[in-house]
Amino acid sequence: MSRRGRLAAVVLAAVLSASCVGLDDGEEDEASGPVSGLGDPGDCIVVDMAVSSEKIDLLTELARTFNDSDEAQVGGRCVFVEPRSKASGAAAQLLADGWQNEEAEGPQPVVWSPASNAWGAIVNQRLDDRGEPPMAPASEPFMLTPLVIAMPEPMADALGYPETPIGYADIVGLSQSEEGWAAYGHPEWGPFRLGKTNPNFSTSGLSALIAQSYAATGTTRGLSLEELARPDVIAFGEAVESGVVHYGDITMTFLNNWFRADQRGTALTYVSAVAVEEKSLIDYNLGNPDGVLDPGEEPRPPRIPLVAVYPKEGTLFSDNPYIVLDAPWVDEDEAAGAAAFGEFVQRPENQQQVLEFGFRPGNPEVAIGAPIVAANGVDPAQPTATLEVPDPPVLVDLLDRWGDQRKKARVLLVLDISGSMGEPADGSSGGGPTKLDLAKEAAIGALDDFNEDDEVGLRVFSTNLGPSEEEEYLDLVPLTRIGDIREQLVTRIRDQFPTNGTPLYTATGTAYDAVLAEYDPARINAVVLLSDGVNDDGQVGDDQEQLETLLATLRAGSEGQASRPVRVFPIAYGEEADLATLRRIAEGTNAAVYSARDPLTIDKVFTAVVSNF
Amino acid sequence: MLALVAAVAMVGGAFAVRGGAFDGGDGSAAGGLLGSEPDVLRLHCATELAEACALLAAGDDRIEVQDERAGLTTDALLSGAPLSSDVWLAPRPWVEQVRELGRGAPLGEPTDVLARSPLVLAAFDEAATGCAGEPVGWRCIGGASGVRPGIQPLDDTAGLFALAQAGAAYLGRESYATNDFEVEPEGGGAPFVDWAADLLQAVPQAAFRTPLAAMLATETATFDFAATIEAVATTAIAGTRQEGSLRLIYPLPMATVDVVAVALPDADGDAAAALLELLEGGAGAGALADAGWRVEDRPLPPGADAAVGLGPDDGLPEAGVLAALRSRFA
Hints:
Largest sheet of chain B: 8 strands, mixed
Structural class of chain A: alpha/beta
Distance between the termini of chain A: 18 Å
Helix content of chain B: 25-40%
Largest sheet of chain A: 6 strands, mixed
Oligomer: heterodimer
Strand content of chain A: 15-25%
Shape of chain A: globular
Strand content of chain B: 5-15%
Number of strands of chain A: 17
Structural class of chain B: alpha/beta
Number of strands of chain B: 8
């Protein structure tokens, strides 16, 4: 499967970022299973909804109110609306493929509410490419939030914003300037660092990609295939991407990392600007960077607030359409039930709830007010210019070209081959493939997600390795352009078998050092570390000291204006994995931890990890 | 079109006789003049009249309403396709197109004009105060670079009629023919076809149902002006967060949407007669007025500019010219 196809096919259900949130531009997916708290639908007409993750809480609340009301009726039968979180990009691919696997992906939806209408256009285009009829009719937005460039307030001030408008062209100039922030009197902030999400997964990433392409052409509408092929447009795209610190599937990874850096006083050297939705920026400034308040968590505003920069070239709204799918599995009763709920969410009292969640109400009867106010870093009078969503063939071409233009990566894959990896992956069955079997296949599959020009290396770790049986890791393939060594990587991964202990801390530290030693500023430098257990190197007594030393090293390398960041993206594999420690390792390098507690999800998780590159 | 059709006889004299059969207020038929009492009255409504039709149906549970863009209904009727409705309530130029150009079963005789509403441009204060130093109008909007006009698809009344009005403004006269499309206008400038193509090319795409809906939700982010109908605009704007800042401009030359009703070819005769009586009676007038349309002897709708009087005719070119505009630019 192609890189794009594979990326888009993932379900990110098991993914956790460093602070336990997940997908799209919000929280994690619930791929299947009941929605907590909504109860049993009984004999009602069930209206299944696939909803982008950042609004699942809102729509669950609205569904609960609707389901309990007298209005949940169609033809004398009750209607039961059941929203489930599904990342927009993943849902788009599932719909284009007919939403085949309900057990894994959740029920086929009657209503789809992605973050942007652009995803509907992509679905219809992919269906059209196969000669199939469209499934996602154009739909009226029911709430909106514009894409903004989030910048720490002192940085926006240094650039003279808002008196001096800022756009993508300025960002290109900043990211390519050798002086970096020194040109604005702040050498202590280092180079200009940009955060962007992967457009195959994230609506913010897709919108940012569209916006920068318009900026490259100097237009605001009608982006064409011919324009995308122009050398100057390609060069502009590459220039924007060159300033990226890393990608990722969700903006929350950046916002959580930023928030943690803020608490440590290093917010200004982690990243200079991130393309996010206005709603997310409000959440951040209110002290809730992931938009979800966990039990016991209090919102605490950051020391340095973010400012929403509305790009001078214009921007796009995440317009949150309410799409009643024209799909073969949707019957008349379900469509009627969906229409009833669609009217319900547009009511002023429910649109007021939309506003409370930080979105701009689609119903103009509801006035825009708090929290969309200047005190939260946003400007309700902006944006004054929007960019047109390109035609579907242009969108697809844009995604294809991004795969070539994105910043290249330099990634060391570090696999745990300890004895426990030989345990059955499906603990209940006792037979079948082992954890290592599944991990190897997932790692091999993930190789297709890299760009041919990415550099990838392979290292394995356990105890008593090597001819002398004294090594704790083995380098099997050095960091090399993957286009030249793909088969070698496949072969070496396939050769692995379970061995001995789990020297997790040593493996992490030495892998980090190895990548740092040959740090390439033109690339995303990273370690992908898969482990299924706690540190076990045979010497329990020094474990704590080892860990503290490791974390101190990782943090020191990631902070400061002159840092050479090497991101460590751990995968906590299986139920025995040390998720808490792996999270600290990820946080130490401003990266994200991914959880594959169920080994059967490792394929999807690996693909999500590679979305960072 | 139908040049100088007599000034809106909003409610004809003949109606006065039939009007006696109704209670004149709530829309319920009192019987008496009809041969039988149909159980179902199927009303086909142009989209911009949907609210009026819904209000009418709310007062009479026999009425079933189907809304459709008038251009699509016109296409169906021109091709002879049957419509499962008894009466079509639509702006008169569409009805005239079918009557003049259709090859299918003929439409009935349309009613007199039941209601009217002028074409308007909705704009926020800043844009509404001027257009490159000139009074706001189509000629100025079409010629200005960077202005983002909101024009609905030409299947919609508001879209096609706005383009026709823009043509009149550009060519400098209300009455024009397809021959005028290709020639340089008096006073110089590009031929109308080129000017109009540029105008439509400047219309941004948006995910909203209409440009006005986009302006209500996102202010000036997408459009500077929304071409619409006074009745639609006043109803849509009332009670929103944009009320008070979104203004209506009445571009010259004045053009109006004049509404008529007509029995459809496959209509049930009794049902069509009953519906026409309702529409021509107090119930129809009330529903139309409550939906923001200007109806004779009814108060001016809230939000309508009392200083703006309507002309004796609709100010639009003939049906054939409208059809040509749609064919050329849709």
